[in-house]
Amino acid sequence: MSMLVKKFSLNFLIVFVIRTIFIYVFRFAEFELDNSISMSLGLAIGLTYVQWMREDKTKMTKDYYNQNAKEFVENTLNADMTSLYNQFEKYLKKGDRILDLGCGSGRDSLYFISKGYEVVAVDYSEELTKMASDLLDREVMMLDMREMNFCDEFDGIWACASILHISRDEIEKVMANCESALKQGGIFYLSFKYGNKEAFRNERFFNYYNEGSFEDLSKRFPGLKVLETWRTRDVRVARKDECWLNILIKKEGFRVK
Ligand SMILES: C[S@@+](CC[C@H](N)C(=O)[O-])C[C@H]1O[C@@H](n2cnc3c(N)ncnc32)[C@H](O)[C@@H]1O
Question: Taking the model in full, what pTM does it have?
Answer without folding.
Answer: 0.83
